[in-house]
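[Automated response] Your request has been received and processed.

Submitted sequence:
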Amino acid sequence: MLILLIVYSIALVAVGAWIGRSVRKSEDFFVGGRSLGAGALFATFLAANIGAASTVNATGLAYHHGLAAWWWNGAAGLGTLVLAFVVGPRIWALATARGYLTVGDFLDDHFGRHVRLLATAIIWLGSLSIFAAQIIGAAAVLVVAGGVSYTTGAFVSVGVMTAYFAFGGLLSSAWVNRVQLIVILAGFTVAVVFALGRAGGIGVVGEAVPGTTFFTGTTGLASTAGWPLLFLLVPNFFLSPGLIQRAYAARSVSELRTGIGWCGVALLVFAFAPVALGMSARALLPDLAGEPLQMILPTLLAEAVPTMVGALALAAVFSAEISSADAVLYMLSTSGARDIYRGVIKPDATDAELLRAARITAVLGGIGGFVLVFYYESIYAALGAFYSVVGVTLLAPVLGGLFLPRGGRTAALASIVVGIIALYGSPPLLPAGTWVTSSVLCLTASVATYLAVAVIRPGTQSPTSPSA
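Generated structure:
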């Protein structure tokens, strides 16, 4: 299995390097020359959204919480539909007309440089967390498949993730993601069929995790599974800079709606795959209850299905982590180069210098993510840190900029500051066993602050702000 993964990894890097030969301008690296059709958008969005969270983590959650784990990917699908039909078309029109390359460009245009820099700094730090989550998931695959050490698995994973993306940015990712998506969908389809068969069928698997429902997990409404995940996850799939900037790359608004919309539908369907695998693992390998979440799926594929099926499925899991990782590197490199390097360090940087900065920042992001792997104990911890920070930082400014721009810089800054305070100050105050989580509280506080400032002290709408 390890040899298969090594050959596959080399092939991905080779494809990325080949495509990267044609990348000569920052626009190609940042937004793929704004040339992606519906098919390419579907592939790159779905590959980006099926990662450590939606495979390894969701399977581990299903092992413990049963059907309630569907909401992890289901919420992602719902958020993607919001991006396809509400946020995406509007922000794409602005990006195309005004030449946005990053979400920071949008924030600067509507709220000024200070909001751009504050949001960029917070998102950049938060993005390292989700990048670490992808490394953790990929390393777990290599540990199980090849018996390598966790450190070696993490080092190899981050090397592959960083190499092919740094060559060509979004353009390389869009092509590599097509290969990855074929492997992901084929591997998970075969794995689900064989795992369910080995476990005794849907009827047996459906009873593997007693005391749970589709809406709530074993620990009730405040669990890590169930419908409360809507508050943590939905905003991130229409606010994440890596996804919004992918939307910038659409050739037209109709292709944006088609490609991203079908991705949302696909995620709603795919959500059942890790649930089936996790519940099958519970039936077949009940002794894994004490293992970390990230080890359940790789162990199932290595021990409970035929060798060739397990090899294909492990390659699919590895592909999933790699494809999501390039989406995170995309956030790190583009915001680092455009918003920090050109925005602060060297405003007069040439296009060639900006492109070089993006590649260097991608490498630095890879190093930072590798370091954080040894800080986070699990994928869920790393993901939770990222999703909470992105939601509270961008929900009010992005939606406010698109639909209520009169709040101005004061409202945007206040919403970010209040949201961050609520995020890190609220957990000790929250009642146990309810749907009210820190995500709910901080998002509510952030949006309420923006609305209050917009009503009480409306800012001056800039001449470049979109009309209502």
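Summary generated for your ticket: Confidence is low (pLDDT under 50) at residues 459-468. The domain at 2-380 is CATH 1.20.1730.10 (Sodium/glucose cotransporter).
If you did not submit this request, please reply to this message.
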